[in-house]
Design brief:
Elements lengths: L1 E7 L8 H11 L2 E9 L1 H10 L4 H16 L12 H11 L12 E7 L5 E4 L4 H8 L9 E3 L2 E5 L19 E3 L13 H11 L2 H8 L4 E3 L15 H17 L2
Helix pairs in contact: 1-3, 1-8
């Protein structure tokens, strides 16, 4: 097996597409040597870094996590709370600290007080994951070392920084393709588009010079809160990554 550093973006529900991409890469003989990730990508990356295969993580999602995720209906008053996410991580992650992971993991979050990115790579794992995935207006900030942190995608949704000197080796996966623009949109659709337009250029700079950039265009049909289609989203990531890898 060939090893390479992976960078995994955030993307809400679309983040589970990383599982499909990682499975396609493994089948092609490429597995992560280290992972830098944010938000939903950090949650996936933590399980992979802890020793889960993509297939094992997909089964876990289908069998257990979906019970929690289907409650995340923000507009209907039902929300996937940080407490529920934390309980899921506590119950299923086999390690509690970064140092106990099988491969290096870098988790990014955004410093809400001072601005800018913070990269977590040592100490307690779960608080960093909760901070990294604390989407503003959906979840409250998470306090670590006396400072409030929110979703790492706000500071860079494709956090290449830990591998800056190794760009030519990096496989970067971004799960937020822009759908065709239409003036008739729901407020959730508008929020989703604005959220990702705001850091699209930074993502492009992060992807520049990477060995491989994977952005499944078919994910544009799914919103960041579209948790009813986890299986289809995983398959979309898998199928597109297969196509990209076949062209190598």
């Amino acid at each position: 097996m060939e090893q390479a550093p992976f960078v995994l973006s955030g993307g809400g529900a679309r983040g589970v597409a990383h599982i499909g991409v990682l499975r396609a890469c493994a089948e092609a003989g490429i597995i992560p040597s280290a992972i830098s990730a944010t938000s939903a990508g950090a949650l996936v990356g933590a399980f992979i870094a802890a020793g889960f295969t993509p297939e094992e993580l997909e089964r876990l999602l289908r069998e257990e996590w979906r019970l929690h995720l289907t409650r995340w209906r923000v507009l209907r008053g039902e929300r996937l709370t940080q407490r529920r996410i934390g309980e899921f991580l506590q119950a299923n992650l086999p390690v509690q600290n970064f140092e106990d992971l099988r491969i290096p993991l870098f988790v990014t979050a955004t410093d809400m007080a001072r601005g800018g990115q913070r990269i977590f790579h040592q100490g307690p794992l779960i608080p960093a994951l909760l901070a990294s995935s604390a989407v503003p207006l959906v979840f409250p900030s998470v306090e670590i070392d006396g400072l409030p942190y929110v979703d790492g995608g706000l500071s860079n949704n494709l956090p290449i920084e830990p591998f800056e000197e190794r760009r030519r080796e990096v496989i970067a996966v971004y799960v937020n393709p822009l759908p065709p623009y239409t003036a008739r949109r729901t407020w959730r659709g508008t929020m989703d588009r604005v959220f990702h337009l705001s850091f699209r250029e930074l993502v492009s700079r992060s992807a520049k010079g990477c060995r491989l950039y994977i952005e499944p265009p078919e994910l544009a049909r799914y919103g960041m809160f579209d948790l009813r289609h986890v299986g289809q989203i995983i398959h979309t990531g898998y199928a597109h990554a297969q196509q990209v890898l076949q062209r190598l």
